[in-house]
Fold each of these.
Amino acid sequence: MVNIVLFGPPGAGKGTQSEYLIKKYQLTHISTGDLFRKHLKEGTPLGKLAQQYMDEGKLVPDQVVIDMVDDKIKNDGPVTGYIFDGFPRTVAQAEALDKLLTSKNTPIKCMIALEVSKEELVKRLLNRGITSGRADDQDETKINTRIQVYLDETLPVAKYYEKQGKFNPINGIGEVNSIFNSICSIIDK
Ligand code: AMP
């Protein structure tokens, strides 16, 4: 079983790379953003709770996110590995994920951080907003809030994995295929 954390700011290409990685390594995708959007669409209480935070580009409270991931993992049948996309986004979430996976005897193998400049992120997110229909991709103020939240609250997660010797930064600008190859060479190490 191989568990991978795909890390990076909004617009870094985590979703795109996840699609390729899922196919190559037969991984189960856990994107907390996708899970919240699904709850939102279905109008569940969890979706309603998350909506206010998502609308503002802020993080949903840790315990809500952790319980949702916990629930998803517990209800999944046997899997060959997970790719975590957009999670963990705080050190508390990273600690909770370690605890959860330790109880399943299947730790995180590596964390791969896609690095992209702020100017490029804003450009990509505004572009994505044209087709994604995501309100949080269409408003530059919200985009800036999300990037700032990433810098303030999520970046410390990189240090958390660095201390464990699992942090692997890579350049997230360039051809999708060559970025994919860089990621694979880290996973295959
Ligand atoms: P994403 O699709 O990953 O960009 O997430 C969209 C929004 O969902 C974020 O701006 C947050 O409001 C919320 N969200 C997604 N994942 C998390 C997480 N791990 N922790 C807290 N909030 C999250």
Note: The chain has nine helices and five strands.
Amino acid sequence: MIILGIETSCDETSAAVLSGGRVCSNVVSSQRCHAEFGGVVPELASREHERLIVSIAEAAITEANITKNELDLIAATAGPGLIGAVMVGLSFAQGMAYALDLPFMPVNHIEGHIFSPFIEEGASHRPPEGAFVSLTVSGGHTLLSVVQSDLSYEVIGRTLDDAAGEAFDKTGKMLGLAYPAGPEIDRLASGGDPAFHEFPRALTSHSQSSRSYRGNLDFSFSGLKTSVLTWLQKQTPEFIEKHLADIAASIQHAIVSVLVEKTVAAARTRRIGAVAIAGGVSANSALRRAMKEACDRSGIELHLPGLRYSTDNAAMIATLAGLKVRRGVPTERNYSVAPYASFAAGGRSS
Ligand code: KG4
Ligand code: ZN
């Protein structure tokens, strides 16, 4: 089966072609027009998607060495995301499916991330036979879920305020770093001391009111943000500049240790032997390292997405569409965007 996947939920315009479950092309164009605003401007994002979607889809088809007439299925992100941005990709994909008389599969963006560690590129890399715990950490989401082999899942933890990526981006902004600051904090932290300053880790066994951690799998990062701000206000610009790498490493350590502790606790308490992490923050080198060490200590198998599949991409959308078809999920026509309705497609949240 040859699948064309389309992803336009935020500020990446992407199209990918999969053949027999394997990636033949994955074209991603990251919008640069938002940098001067310090965050994604929804209307600019929609216009950029509109400008690029046709050429990106054509590029994915050409790079895969096929013609559009060889496609068997078209899939696109149907939400959650910026409504105008999602609409561009979804309308384009449904229009193309209609014109070519092909089936269409809507895909939930977060579910796409969840399955990104199982994108096949060269080697076969199918999801585990049994259940796995998924940690999905992006600029908009921080979710812990238990995913079953029939692709259904149960959300067992989520952020009560900011997403993990936001925690990186907003504290990075306080340090004067450009948006999105996550990758820059990662780079700076590699030369810094994570024990330089202890920032708070909410709802964990390390939080000051350690009684707050009683198997609580929810996250909270707003306290960290305030703590970084008030601590920085007490330092001189010279001190901050001199210790930028140490401060970045300390912030990163606070975020990463919470993510690792809760993910491993979830797998252990539920007696699940596999963990998969996904989303933009899963590109973080300290998170990958710490999660691997913690999983190894507990005998848990860890699945990581390839670095280029951590951030938004269409290969994950096409991959999940393929898994759904194999599971007998019916294709659709005339699907509407769902900007917030996060887990309509096959999920179950608690
Ligand atoms: O999944 P994604 O591309 O878009 C959303 O759906 O949000 O995630 C973007 C987020 C941003 O907050 C960015 O700072 C973060 O992922 N990110 C990182 C790294 N690479 C991307 N955070 C920490 N370390 C990284 N290496
Ligand atoms: Zn995403």
Note: Residues 109, 113, 138, 279, 312 surround zinc ion (ligand 2) (CB under 6 Å).
